[in-house]
């Protein structure tokens, strides 16, 4: 259902009856190019539900983090800003989506009919509309680095939520975190597949000789690109390090918690955002 621009969006009806609201607004060519470049990956992950086990582990941890902060803030509703293209609920809200009540928002025009209340559009298009009801909590699940202007996205999230409450899951690009992310799965596999002292020792040595120089080289290249402000791929607008993300969140509001998800390059943050931009 598309509603005319001046009318308040019927969020209450969407929460009660489900369905899909379609917003107008298209984004510019560069935003579309970067956003659509990940479509194949999204089809595999969100649509076919074929996530790597390591991603599912982080999602389970993020679900606990959302539940904790929804409880602290007594949130009754949440909106997932950049929920992806899956028809089923994203795994990181599957056990909690009834309480708080969940609405997904995503601009990609795939699977407009979802198993959950859905807004098809960009956050920027939602935030210019009056809403008949604001949300209690905003989620950014690996989506903040996909917004052209991440600082503005945080301010817009504050605008569409009553108290400015948001929880964020973001992947970081600091070398130690990337290295442990890359190597932790391989080391776990190696331990599982080599059970005796001699075979494990040989496997560790093999990994050290064959893999670690490659990782060190890739990290050096990545660090040079980050320092020069060059993009690391064609899929994102931002490549956050811990310092950059902390500085961005501090400029947008109050950080209540900022935790690392062990063994990965993911962090979770709980913030109260301000609708003001500097
Ligand atoms: C990496 S995916 C994350 C999907 C899902 N949250 C997950 O973790 O599996 C990033 C999502 O952000 C969405 N996105 C990009 N720009 C956006 C915008 N301006 N407003 C809302 N969502 C946006 C993309 O369409 C994409 O589905």
What is the count of helical runs? 10
- Given as residue ranges, the uncertain stretches (5+ residues, pLDDT < 50) are none
Which oligomeric state applies? single chain
The structural class is alpha/beta
The CA-CA distance between the termini, in Å, is 35 Å
Query: Which outline best applies?
Result: globular
Description:
This protein has 278 residues and is α/β, with parallel strands linked by helices. The protein folds into two domains: 11-173 and 238-273, 3-Layer(aba) Sandwich (Rossmann fold); 175-228, no CATH class. It has helices at residues 11-17, 29-36, 39-47, 53-72, 123-127, 150-160, 175-193, 197-210, 212-228, 242-252; strands at 20-22, 77-81, 101-106, 118-120, 137-141, 165-171, 253-260, 266-273. Helix 6 packs across helix 10 (242-252) and helix 7 packs antiparallel against helix 9 (212-228). It starts with 10 loop residues before the first helix and ends in a 5-residue tail after the last strand. The mean pLDDT is 94. It binds S-adenosylmethionine. S-adenosylmethionine binds at residues 35, 42, 46, 81-84, 90, 105-108, 122-124, 141-143, 146-147.
What labels would you give this structure?
single chain, 278 residues, alpha/beta, Rossmann fold, 2 domains, eight-stranded mixed beta sheet, 10 helices, globular, binds S-adenosylmethionine
In summary, what is this structure?
The chain is an alpha/beta fold. 44% of the residues lie in helices and 16% in strands.
